[in-house]
Design a protein that fits this description.
The chain is α/β, with parallel strands linked by helices. It is built from 6 helices and 11 strands.
Amino acid sequence: MPELVFFSGTMDCGKSTLALQIEHNRSARGLQGMIFTRDDRAGEGKLSSRLGLVTDAVEVEDGQDLYAYLVDHLSQGRRADYVIADEAQFLTFEQIDQLARVVDDLGLDVYAFGITTDFRSKLFPGSQRLVELADRVEVLQVEALCWCGARATHNARTIGGHMVVEGAQVVVGDVNQPDDIGYEVLCRRHHRRRMTAATARASALSPDVLPV
């Protein structure tokens, strides 16, 4: 039976790499996929991983009907044996509903990849809807690590290495950009304390000191 599967995790845990691996494995068996993405680090219409792998994709626009796009694609005699949606956290409630309809009405597997929560630890709308609708939610097993060595569970937005907790929910950036708007993965303890790798290095506090 076709499924809507949501692969979730923090930044830097290999979501896009897995999406590219799924695409490679299926295309090697003669299948053809439809790849959607939104605001990829490599630019418009690209699906890329931090390992340097990249492929072409359809850039999703505001208000675009993904179900109608697939129906039009198929009605022109073109193939789509499965669907990959990367950066799915940026999709709207309606677009996630459309992906579920692709599974139910068109009989195609849909593999969605995305971050669950934003830099404020709030659910992205697309991720929230995927959790509500997905046949399966898979948490990626490649663990990203906080600067302290603990498992990273939260995404932090940084400016000049300092964590910020205000601003627009979507600002495109990447990890390891200390002099610009960037992102860093942290464990819950250091996300709660707003302590990034840069601020930890600058701090002379002992780890044995209790927070006030």
